[in-house]
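Researcher: Here's the sequence for the chain we discussed earlier.
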Amino acid sequence: MRIDSRLMKTDMELASIERQDDRLLMKSPPEDWNATKVYLSPQDVVNTVRLSLHRGMIGYVLMFPFFLVAHYLRREKDISPFVYDIGYIVAATFMGLLLLGGTTFLLAEPRAGAIALGVLALLFVFSAIGSGKAGFLYLAVPLLVIADFLLAHGQGIDVRNFPKLALWVVLTLLILGKALGSERQGRLALPLYRTAYLVVLIYTVYIVLNAQTYAGEDPWGASLPLLAFAVFHFVRYLDTREVLQQCVAMVLLGGGFLLALYGIPYLPVPYYGLPLIALSMAMILIADRYHEAHGLAHVAPAYSVAIVIALAAFAYAWRDLSALLLSLALFSVHFFGGTRSLGIKSTAEDWGEKTFQWIEFALANLAAGLAALLMLTVGRANWASVAAAIVYVHFYRKMGFGREPTALRTRNQYLWAAGAFYGVLIFVVLGMLDPLRSAQNDMLLVPPLLLPLLIYGRVVHRQGKAGPAASIYESSLPTVVAAIVLPTALGNFWLPTASVVAAILIVLYGLLALVWRDEVLLYPLPILIAHLYFNGLAVAGLSGPMVGLLFLPLGLPAMIVAVWLQRRGAGPARIFFLAWFVFSGASILGAASDRTLITYLVAAWAALYTLAASFMNQAGHRQPVVEAGSNV
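Model: Thanks. This is the structure I predict for it:
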């Protein structure tokens, strides 16, 4: 340690410093033969440190920034950028101090504050013009915008109306930016655009935080600014091709459109879902155009936001059943169409398109299933139910003939769905009109109403489409089962009603099968015969385990005939196998009240099924499942 001052001059090797009372003891190392010790009081320490600083060193420290600047300027040939940077930093600091320190004055005297900020902004504009540097505009433009809002505040304009002012500010900045947006002057437009981004962000957050107030009092006062902000960002997307711009534009468009719905006086809130789904459809239709030109990456945000907006529709629609059914139907129509627009046969490389395709297709089918469940359970028979059922019949039929089946080789699952919804349509219409003044008696009209579906299947068959025709015939099975079960399930059961319905259906399907020579039309007969047989047992006063035993005379002959026809390779074998399955199931259900009897019946039928399985496998598909002339 070396101490060199006016008080003392010493050069010693310091080993330790100890505190003794109010003094410091500095010791030299043990090997120092002088064993130097120095005692310093606190004041001595202060004086030593103070006097150890030379005046020259203190001056150099104070002048160091100036020496550094002089050294930099001496090395640089052109010092104008340095001067510009210094001026920009000083100006930005001055502006920040003015805004932070003068907030009270600006709010108390908005007009004078607006004039002061306007003058300062003009100085920055002149600085930008004189220096040719666009950086000063980053100071000028925000000051002008703040001055604009201060002037509005001074005129007594309510803060809730500021988003309307922001609308014009953003559009003005956009127009000025487009005017300065040439290749030579493009840098001058960036401060305008970035200031507009800031204004959009501030007032979008403000609208979101006060959305409930705007929705109840002034929906258009918030909707129009959001829509204008969406236009601004969409124009910026067209200029820059930045995906974020498109995403922001779509979100703002959805929010502005939703608030606009609150401004429509005679539109019930539950029906807001329908316009939202229509907006989602428009988004995807527009995005499809850019998808083809620029690829999925440029439209993925639009697809994603469109899906979210369509799903948000159900937040309003669930309040009213009719609105919910119509929203579900339009939702399915939307995404069935969206699936086709994305391309049905995506390759492995198109995993993005394939992902959107199956998301939309799954959502559409999920909505269809929910609509059917609502119509058959809690749904009221009204015009909304009829419209939804018609929509699903049409679109599933269209899909059945418009795209390749994806699940079955010889049947078309979309035509199955179309036929099932046709049955739902029948029951909804009967429930709404109630032509025979009784829900049970209305079931008598099911057979004639099913006839158009069967005739349509025949027309398809005559066009050489045996597989789709078979799918149409088979799609009537749920309606047949419902027609004979509903009279019992509706209460006040009257046996002849269900029996007459079953008999009419047997005659209808039997005659059509004989005339059209189509085996598929015989599929409902085992179910109908079992139902009539059960009704006959009920008329005879039989019930319980005896019903299960009395189904054995039907099940065993059906099994024998089915196995015999299968070994001969005859087509009708499948009908008797189906009859065997129905009669055996009926016998087990009939004996359900007797645990011992049902155990023996299950074991016996299982053994017979196992025995017959070998004969069924021996056939080995001797005939094609679907031939050109018949559905077998």
